[in-house]
Amino acid sequence: MERGMVAIAAAIAMLAGMLTGIGEGWVASKGVEAVGRNPEAEGKIRTTMILGIALTETVALYGLLVSLMLIFVFK
Fold first, then answer.
1. DSSP, residue by residue, the chain
2. How far apart are CA 75 and CA 29, in angstroms?
3. 14-64 pLDDT, tens digit each
4. Distance CA 35, CA 73 (A)
5. What residue ranges do the domains of the chain occupy?
6. pTM to 2 decimals?
């Protein structure tokens, strides 16, 4: 019973990776849309977009770390 619950918890933690991919795609699409509307601000938009994507990617890494800890620590 306990091992099954750990597997379910690890799967829920890995949802962070899936949802992060969706969020990064949304940020990139909005960045491209913003550059299309205002090409003069491309540098500022790109910098902000890359910073947002990098911060979003940390959520996926934390989710991976939590799921690995659940799998290997709570056997």
1. -HHHHHHHHHHHHHHHHHHHHHHHHHHHHHHHHHHHH-GGGHHHHHHHHHHHHHHHHHHHHHHHHHHHHHHHH--
2. 41
3. 888 888 989 999 999 999 999 999 999 999 999 999 999 999 899 889 988
4. 46
5. 2-73
6. 0.73
Which CATH superfamily does the domain covering 2-73 fall into?
Answer: F1F0 ATP synthase subunit C (1.20.20.10)
Residue corresponding to tokens 């099954």: 4
The one-letter amino acid code at 52 reads G
Residue for token digits 């913003």? 34
